[in-house]
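Technical note accompanying the year-one report. For the benefit of new consortium partners, we illustrate the data format agreed upon in the data management plan: each record pairs a sequence with a structure-token string. No post-processing was applied to the example shown here.
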Amino acid sequence: MDIVRIPGSKIVEVARLAFATPDVDFLCFGESDQPSPAVAREAAIAALNAGDTRYPDVRGLPPLREALAAYMTGLYAKPVAETRVQVAASGMAALGICLAATVRAGDRVVMHGPSWPNIENAALLRGARVDVLDLDRLPDGSFHLDLNRLDAMMAGARALILNSPNNPTGWTASAAELRAMLDLARKHGTWLISDEVYTRLVYDGRPAAPSLLDIAEPDDRVLVCNSFSKTWIMTGWRLGWIVVPEGVRDAFGDIVEVTHSGVAPFTQRAGLAAIADTDTVARFRAHCAEGRRLVGEALAGLNGVRYVAPDGAFYAFAGIEGLTDSLALAKSLVARHKVAVAPGIAFGASGEGSLRICFAQSAVTMERAMTRLREGLRAERGA
């Protein structure tokens, strides 16, 4: 058939095998086993019962836009006006809308890797040429972004896509690194699209990771994408938002109109209730911190495993010495050891040789799954 094709997800390959295998612990998807906040569920039910099911304002319900602006103004160093907030049907939809607004066929887009495959594929669907700057993996297993190489790559680029805290590595850009990237974007006239969906999942006591919203001016060529999926455990709700430069929100609303025509109002009511639920945010961060601890304990002492606890997000990205086929290893771990993790190759060539483990699961699940993973790595790799 004469249709556009993009690479299939290798995470899905592993998941399909896991779905067909009894008694498998799922650590391959980027979501938690915890429930969405009760207040969000109740708000959605109330909105449905009230008949709040008609076409919404494509910009987002005014109370939700106002609540998001207040939320970000309280979280970051600079205020965010409601006039800059555009609601979208998920964080992925937000990224797609940003690319639709800024990137044309033949434009060059720069991003860092390893990366969540949907980001690169979304750029490819726009007809963009994608250049990937691989994060440097340091001897201790942590990651570093080479800003000098980034400067050279950004010359002539239409957009730079940033994901911090990062999926899959957990790398989190420092305030100084963000300042340097913003300066480079200004220097080269490049749009800076920042995926910040994991911003509240950091483990050093801060309420949020450093953000471009701390430093960018309202007229900078900066687009910040976020969603309810990770912070409020609402992956299936498909509710996100974009912070756009001042004066262009209506243009983004027009793109939303022709892509998904706005977000279901009852879903937005759930999001409005979730924003006020600060207890869920703190509780979920603590939940993920416990999973992070359990992964660290399980991987400690395994021969040939390079791993350092991530600064942000809810993934462990463990390097396996000598591994050249992470997909085959991930499938074997499912079939023979009843644990599903994501193969590093799913996140680009620079991810090969690693496995991504989602640790946002209950302690009971994590303890069992990590026992299986340790045993599996010893059996399969002699770790």
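Partners are asked to follow this layout when depositing records. The chain has two domains: 10-36+279-378, 38-276.
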